[in-house]
Q: What sequence folds into this?
């Protein structure tokens, strides 16, 4: 039986219903806590669902918010500001997904719990909450990251009582959540296992690998042996351990074993499900997390109902416990759930904070301004120029770098190119592309590009990034000028010694380069553990290093016009010309 008691949060008295049991349609019961005002009356509810544990979320009542790089920052405290939700006269309901925390059932693999879609569980959970005497029948959702993805999965199931959602910092394209441009991102390991300072998923003993459930031991053995032929995987001790002891790392094992995009990631991908959503949706993300911003925009464009896109300022990581964006969220929910005519729908659909100028641009579409794609060419002496190189390779010899594997060196080799200082403010908003002609002496490597805005005093801020595993260089029919797309559905080994064109997708960004500032473009095949940007990220938010020695020659001569293709707003183009 649920425990009902009150607690004090500052001057506020909060009534708590602890350890509620929420039945699913297959008989499994999920666990939940509900927080509300002291006066016992029906209120609209905001639901938060994840496998991170409802007890951990309660730290929002006692722990001051921590910003990265605080050592106390814990990426799993993401359900929102409980005291603020109660103060705004909503019930905050925090639930444990099946197979986690105090809930029953099994959790199997990627957003699949015991063979049951987590969206289906969310539907049952929301409708149960709506039917309780302490709820007035109207439900929204709350929470970032995993909690944010759960909002989209829930809305796609169309529970009648779910009136609107507000998604901040969600992950949408599941393949791009784990492989950026085909390069494995190590952060999902931290989410699952709690490495690098995170508490991790609060799974019970009822958690299993979908790969181990799907294939015979003989098939698994053969697939593991094939995966270990990748020297990047074989050289990384943690992944070697995962391959040999999959039951200890079941969810991470599933991800590592599925390095190509396909049904594994698409079957319950929020981007795939988004066209089913017709309730009002506000999607929000701060700049600096490029792949997530890409998915956020793709989600926004796929939605069918009333919607808003809100791109906020750098830095990329919100505090933990999560407290940001609540003002906007209540503005949204007061209109759609409480029926308060506060004018939120009279405001433009798209709002974008532009770094550099620090202005907010609004419009009814993304990008919020007219743009024209223009090239910036890589030139000798590590320069970037609006004019292409006229000399051949015999005179404009290629740039290059050799990277030894990190098993034998601590040094990450980085090559860079930079513009002259901009004479006038130059604004760019949108996606971009990097066309690089490179000769590689191995069958594969990583290509990691980072673009910085560097001030005259040397201080710099990351603007956008691009990632591509060289063997994933194929483009597909979605590719347009300045917006390359890769299918990531097969591996095409590099032919050593051959100059190939590699096209990196540069994730969406919005920045004005002020007079005197330079654009600096860096290329490497690994990334430094800590710099001006990485220090702001969780400790495991880097990519799997290349496990073999590689020499890269970057050609940028008249016959090989290595270049960036960037989204200049038309005002900036006119100014530049």
A:
């Amino acid at each position: 039986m649920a425990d009902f008691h009150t607690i004090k949060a500052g001057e506020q008295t909060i009534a708590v219903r602890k350890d509620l049991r929420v039945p699913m349609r297959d008989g499994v019961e999920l666990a939940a806590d509900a927080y509300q005002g002291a006066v016992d009356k029906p209120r609209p509810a905001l639901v938060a669902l994840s496998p991170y544990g409802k007890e951990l979320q309660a730290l929002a009542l006692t722990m001051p918010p921590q910003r990265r790089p605080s050592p106390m920052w814990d990426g799993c405290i993401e359900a929102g500001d409980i005291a603020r939700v109660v103060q705004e006269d909503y019930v905050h309901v925090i639930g444990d997904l099946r197979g986690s925390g105090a809930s029953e059932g099994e959790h199997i693999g990627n957003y699949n719990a015991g063979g049951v879609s987590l969206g289906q569980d969310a539907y049952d959970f929301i409708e149960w909450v709506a039917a309780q005497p302490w709820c007035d029948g109207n439900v929204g959702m709350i929470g970032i990251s995993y909690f944010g993805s759960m909002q989209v999965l829930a809305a796609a199931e169309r529970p009648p009582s779910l009136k609107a959602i507000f998604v901040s910092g969600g992950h949408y394209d599941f393949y791009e959540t784990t492989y950026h441009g085909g390069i494995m991102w190590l952060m999902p390991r931290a989410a699952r296992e709690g490495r690098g300072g995170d508490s991790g998923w609060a799974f019970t003993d009822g958690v299993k690998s979908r790969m181990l459930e799907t294939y015979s031991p003989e098939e698994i053995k053969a697939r593991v042996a094939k995966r270990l032929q990748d020297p990047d995987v074989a050289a990384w001790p943690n992944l070697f351990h995962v391959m040999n002891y999959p039951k200890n790392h079941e969810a991470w094992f599933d991800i590592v074993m599925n390095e190509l995009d396909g049904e594994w990631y698409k079957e319950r991908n929020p981007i795939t499900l988004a066209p089913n959503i017709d309730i009002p949706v506000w999607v929000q993300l701060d700049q600096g997390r490029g792949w997530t911003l890409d998915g956020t925009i793709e989600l926004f464009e796929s939605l069918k109902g009333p919607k808003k896109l809100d791109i906020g300022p750098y830095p990329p990581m919100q505090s933990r416990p999560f407290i940001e964006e609540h003002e906007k969220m209540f503005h949204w929910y007061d209109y759609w759930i409480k029926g308060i005519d506060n004018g939120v729908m009279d405001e433009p659909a798209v709002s974008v904070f532009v770094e550099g100028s620090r202005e907010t641009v609004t419009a009814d579409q993304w990008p919020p301004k007219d743009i024209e794609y223009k090239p910036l060419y890589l030139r000798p002496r590590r320069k970037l120029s609006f004019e292409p190189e006229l000399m051949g390779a015999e005179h404009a010899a290629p740039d290059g770098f050799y990277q030894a594997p990190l098993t034998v060196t601590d040094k990450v080799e980085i090559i860079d190119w930079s513009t002259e200082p901009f004479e006038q403010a130059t604004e760019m908003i949108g996606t971009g592309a990097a066309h690089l002609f490179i000769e590689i002496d191995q069958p594969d490597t990583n290509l990691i590009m980072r673009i910085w805005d560097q001030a005259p005093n040397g201080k710099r801020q990351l603007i956008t990034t691009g990632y591509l595993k060289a063997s994933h260089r194929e483009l597909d029919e979605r590719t347009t000028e300045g917006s390359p797309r890769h299918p990531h559905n097969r591996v095409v080994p590099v032919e050593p010694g051959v100059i190939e064109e590699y096209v990196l997708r540069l994730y969406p960004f919005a920045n004005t380069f002020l007079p005197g500032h330079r654009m600096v473009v860096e290329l490497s095949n690994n990334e430094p553990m800590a710099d001006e940007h990485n220090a702001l990220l969780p400790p495991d938010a880097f990519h799997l290093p290349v496990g073999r020695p590689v020499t890269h020659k970057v050609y940028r001569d008249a016959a090989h016009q290595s270049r960036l293709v960037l989204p200049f707003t038309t005002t900036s183009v006119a100014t530049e010309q």
Notes: The domain at 3-347 is CATH 3.40.50.1820 (Rossmann fold). The CA atoms of residues 286 and 312 lie 4 Å apart.
